[in-house]
Amino acid sequence: MSSSDDSPMARLPPNLVSVFTQALKSYQISNATFRVLCSLTHSSLSSAAPAVPPTLHPPLTPLKSLLVFDSSFNPPTLAHQRMALSALLDHGQSDAYSDKEHASRVLLLLAINNADKAPKPAAFPQRLAMMYIFAQDLLRSSTTELTQQDQQHRGGCEAVDIAVTTEPYFHAKAHAIAASEFYRDPEQVYLTGFDTLIRIFNPKYYAPGGMAASLEPFFARSRLRVTMRTDAEWGDAEAQRAYVAALREGELQRVGGRTEWVERIEMVEGRKEGEEVVSSTKVREAVRRRDWEALKRLVSEDVAGWIREEGLYAEEST
C-alpha cells in the first residue's frame, strides 16, 4: 500500500499495535472492569501528526446518548459502519422541545473476556488497531452523511472512543461504563444484531431466576437498537418482528424477564433485499481465498489495506 503522506493510512500513529499492546498490559494490571483507551475527534483527523500514544477526550458536556457498539471487531466491516451511521442519524437529533442540538458519541467496545468467542484469529492489539481505523472511517463518513441530512436538523458525532472491558455480559458492561467517571452516566444505546438479542434473553446465560435481577438495572439506564439480520438462520424481517411481538405478549415473562423491557428495544432495518451479506466471517474467507475484489465490498479501503499489510486472516485456524 502507498506510504504517501496523502494516504489515509499515513494518518495512523506509528507502531499502533505496540501502543495498544502496552495499553492492554496496563489495563490488565489495573484489574479495572472497563477503560477507555483513546478518543478520536474530528480535529484528530485533520492533525498532520497523530498523537502517540492516542489521547483521551472526555465529553465536555453531558451527552444525550452514548452509542455503545460492542463487538469482536474481527475485523470491523462495512455492515458495522452502516449500523453506526444509522444510529448517529437517528440519535443525534435536536431536542423536540427546544432548538438545542445534541451531539452523540460512539463507544467502540472490545470485550477481552468474551462469553462465547475465543480471542482468535486476530489478537486483541490488532483488533484495537482496526477499531482505530474504523473510528477514523466513521468520523469521516458521519461528516458526509450528517451534512447531507442537514435539512432534518440533526446533531453530529462528537467523538469515537475505543475501550476494553473484562465483563462478558451486557448488563455488567453497562454497569461498568456507568460506574466510570468518563461519561457522567448518559443513557446507553447498545447497537446489536438480532442474533445478539436472542442471546440476551436466553436463560442459559443467567443463574436460575437471575435474569430479572441482572437485566432490570440494565434496562433502567440502557436501551437496545437491534438491526434485523435476515438470512436462512434467523429468518426474514417478519419473523424477527414476530419474535419481539411474542416477547411483548408474555414470552419474555415466561423465561424470567419483564414484559416492559420490550419498550426499550428499537428494531431497525438491516440489509435490503438483494444486497450482499456482509460479515466478519465472509471477510476472513475472502482473505484466505486471496479474493481482494470481494474484500473491497466487505470492509473499508483502509481496513482492507491494514489486513493485507499485517497479513491477517491468511491462515485462520478452525
Question: Could you list the spans in which at least 5 consecutive residues all have pLDDT below 50?
Answer: 1-6, 94-100, 150-154
Give the CA-CA distance, first to last residue: 29 Å
Gross morphology is: globular
- The residue-averaged pLDDT reads 86
Q: Name the beta content range.
A: 5-15%
Strand arrangement, major sheet: 1-4-3-2-5-6-7
Largest sheet: 7 strands, mixed
Order of helices and strands: HEHEHEHEHEHHEHEHHH
Give the fraction of residues assigned to helices.
Answer: 40-55%
* Rg over C-alpha atoms, rounded to the nearest angstrom: 19 Å
Structural class: alpha/beta
How many H/I helical runs? 11
GO molecular function: ATP binding; ATP hydrolysis activity; nicotinamide-nucleotide adenylyltransferase activity
GO cellular component, one term: cytoplasm
Organism: Daldinia eschscholtzii
Keywords: ATP-binding, NAD, Nucleotide-binding, Nucleotidyltransferase, Pyridine nucleotide biosynthesis, Transferase
Describe this structure in words.
The chain is an alpha/beta fold and 318 residues long. Helices cover 42% and strands 15% of the residues. The chain contains eleven helices and seven strands. It has helices at 16-30, 42-46, 78-91, 124-148, 170-179, 194-200, 211-221, 237-254, 280-289, 292-298, 301-310, and strands spanning 34-40, 65-70, 104-111, 157-165, 187-193, 222-227, 265-268. Helix 5 (170-179) packs across helix 7 (211-221). The radius of gyration is 19 Å and the shape is globular. It catalyses: beta-nicotinamide D-ribonucleotide + ATP + H(+) = diphosphate + NAD(+). One of its GO terms (biological process) is NAD+ biosynthetic process. Keywords: ATP-binding, NAD, Nucleotide-binding, Nucleotidyltransferase, Pyridine nucleotide biosynthesis, Transferase. GO terms for molecular function: ATP binding; ATP hydrolysis activity; nicotinamide-nucleotide adenylyltransferase activity.
